[in-house]
């Protein structure tokens, strides 16, 4: 099986360097979600894909270059697909949010394992380690929050001191998701995310 | 400076093996928060403390043993001190929660850097990598949520299907904190945590 994958990769290497780059980024994305960035060995990644050090280094001369590619090509795209597109298409903000949370919860339940939010995983592990990583991820959070905020009505804030209801609520939504799925990763069940969203939805419906 | 620290450690090693163990756990706790578990090198940790491999291995024969000690001795204690004690002492749940969030936000602002939640950092990085780590951290989350839930009034749930208002709200509070501080780590400011709590407090006060 490993040999077969290896020969696929060797063909890709000869005929389709872009395909090989994509395959490396895909493998790294999965490995970072399961084991973290720091515990993922580039040597193991190359061995499991059956590719040479030279072919790997051609695309990613450093582990940092691979990390940045995973964040730009896969983590940003995951937030786009899971969050931004459905929120933009939803008839209203609350049904859009409900759709995203319930769809993620369903996916966790049917996967039977919880790898966590690809952005949250790397943001928490890498933000103090490397400022280039951190800035890429800060920008993804900013976009995610802005897209939610622009769908929300501006609520009258309880505390008028510089607060912006839509921006505050967008931050709370992303925090609830990020923290709920972190706890879900620790329990390996969707339960913490499900409870957290159930309560937030109930508070928002009552408001 | 390094030499001076080294000699302190050597004295500790001769006279106070328990002190050396504590010093190693403290250093590892800081290193894991800044760099993550996977990117922390035991060799660097020993070198920066000026201690021998033998003395280190006497206390922690493996990196995993050190990780478990950090979770049991320091991460659990951090949740106890920052969250559980103040929530238990507070006159009521909402003022207790407000006190904890505002105190963490103040600390982040005066530190001028955000290392994140010690529990969230390791839960997100390690929960799929190692089931022993995961179970320790799952138990800390369970205790944290239970202590908050027992201070909360049971609210009439919007959705009666198996929901428990206090448990749901406790999950939402811990998710808001965990996710808010993850985003704060990515931005290196308290802003996402402050906005998230501001909105949750406002929703809870209105309810």
Characterise this structure.
The structure is a homodimer of 207-residue chains. Chain A is mainly alpha-helical. The first copy, chain A, folds into 2 domains: 2-61, Arc Repressor Mutant, subunit A (Orthogonal Bundle), CATH 1.10.10; 69-206, Tetracycline Repressor, domain 2, CATH 1.10.357.10. Helix content of chain A is 79%, strand content 0%. In chain A, helix 9 packs antiparallel against helix 10 (191-206). Chain A is elongated. The termini of chain A are far apart. In chain A, 43% of the residues are buried. Residues 1-6 of chain A have low confidence and may be disordered.
What's a quick, concise take on this entry?
Chain A is 79% helix and 0% strand.
Annotate the secondary structure layout.
The structure is a homodimer of 207-residue chains.
Chain A: H1 2-15, H2 17-35, H3 42-49, H4 53-59, H5 63-89, H6 93-111, H7 118-126, H8 131-151, H9 165-187, H10 191-206
Helix pairs in contact in A: 1-2, 2-5, 5-6, 5-8, 6-10, 7-8, 8-9, 9-10
